[in-house]
Amino acid sequence: MTAVKAADIDRFIAKPDPALPIVLVYGPDAGLVRERVDALVKVSVDDPNDPFAFVRIEGEDLSGNPSRLVEEAHTVPLFGGRRAVLVKAGSRNIAAAVEMVVNAPSPECRVIIEAGDLRKSSPLRAMCEKAKVAAALPCYVDNERDLARLIDDEMRAAGLSIAPDARATLLSLLGGDRLASRNEIRKLALYAQGQSRIEVADVMAVVADASALALDGVIDAAFAGKTADVDGEFFKARAGGSSPAAIISAAIRHIASLHKMKLAVDGGDSVDFAMQRGAPPVHFSRQKLVGDALRLWTAPRLVRAMQQLAEASLDARRNAVLAEAIAQRTLLSLAVNARKRG
C-alpha cells in the first residue's frame, strides 16, 4: 500500500521515490493540493515552461481518450532531460486512463494527478493506494499545529518575530485553505517590514476586519436557521459599526456564494469540498454554520431569498428611518425560512 502518511509527505515531495513515478495529490484543502502539486512539478522537471518536458492534461480530455496519458508518459523529450505530466482530474472518471499508465509506467516520466476530495472508495484513490508504482498524498485541512508551524516558518523567512497574543489571534483567523493562509501571513509580514515584532494591532489591521467578523456572525446565524441568535448577532454587528445597508449587502454577497456552492453540491461535490473550493474558501471557524446552511437550503430557495434581500435593500434605501428594522426583520425571516422544507 502506497498511501503516504501525513508526517512523511513533505519529505516525499522534497525527494520523490523514483520507484513511484505516479503520484496522486488529493484532499479537501484545495490550496494545499495546489501547493504540493506545484512543489512536485518543480522537483520533477528542469523547466516547467518547456512544453516538451512538462505537459498538462485536463481530466475531460482523458475521459474520451484514455490512452493519451500512457502515450504522453512514454513520449521521449525532444531535447532529453526529465519529463512530467500533470493531470487535473476534475469531475470526470479518469480511472481507466490511470490504470493504463499504472500497468505500463515510465521510469523517465513522473505522472502527477491533481484531484479534489476523494472518498476511500473512489476508484482513482483506491487504485493509486494499491498500486506498487503509485503514491497517494492526502491533503487535509490544517490543524492548529500545522498553522502554528506555517506562521513560524513564514515569520522566520521574513526575519520577524510575533508576540504570543498576536500569534494566538492570527491562528484563530487562519485555516481552511493552505494557500489562503500562507498569503495572509505573507501579507502581514509585508505590512510589518521595518519593525522587529508583529503585535495584535498589526494582525487586526491586516488579516482581520472586526466589522466583517461581526457581519459573519449575524449572516451565518440567519442562513443556518439559528433564529434565537439572529437578534443578538445583529446588534453586535450594529455595535461594531456596520450599517443596515452594509449588513444587507453582505448578506447578498453571502447568498450568491452559498448558491454557487449549493450548485456544486447538487453536481456531486461534498459539502466540505464545496466550501473549500469557494472564492475565498470558507474559514474553518464558519464551516459548521455554512455547512448547515448548504444542507438546509435548495438552490431555487436561495434564488428567492436573494430576491427578498434585494427588495429589502431597496426598501431600506427608500425608508432610511426604518432601515435598521427592515434589515433585522429580513434576516430573522431568512432564519425562519431556512428551517422550512420545500
UniProtKB/TrEMBL annotation:
Catalytic activity: DNA(n) + a 2'-deoxyribonucleoside 5'-triphosphate = DNA(n+1) + diphosphate
Entry-linked InterPro entries: DNA_pol3_clamp-load_cplx_C (IPR008921), DNA_pol3_delta_N (IPR010372), DNA_polIII_delta (IPR005790), P-loop_NTPase (IPR027417)
DNA polymerase III delta N-terminal domain residues: 24-119
Gene Ontology cellular-component annotations: DNA polymerase III complex
GO MF annotation list: DNA binding; DNA-directed DNA polymerase activity
Gene3D superfamilies noted in UniProt: 1.10.8.60, 1.20.272.10, P-loop containing nucleotide triphosphate hydrolases
GO biological process: DNA-templated DNA replication
Record keywords, A-Z: DNA replication, DNA-directed DNA polymerase, Nucleotidyltransferase, Transferase
Pfam families on file: DNA_pol3_delta
EC annotation from Swiss-Prot or TrEMBL: 2.7.7.7
Membrane-traversing stretches: none
Superkingdom as given in the UniProt entry: Bacteria
Claim: Magnesium is one of the keywords in the record: no
SUPFAM superfamilies: P-loop containing nucleoside triphosphate hydrolases (SSF52540), post-AAA+ oligomerization domain-like (SSF48019)
Family stated for the protein in its record: Belongs to the DNA polymerase HolA subunit family.
Record protein name field: DNA polymerase III subunit delta
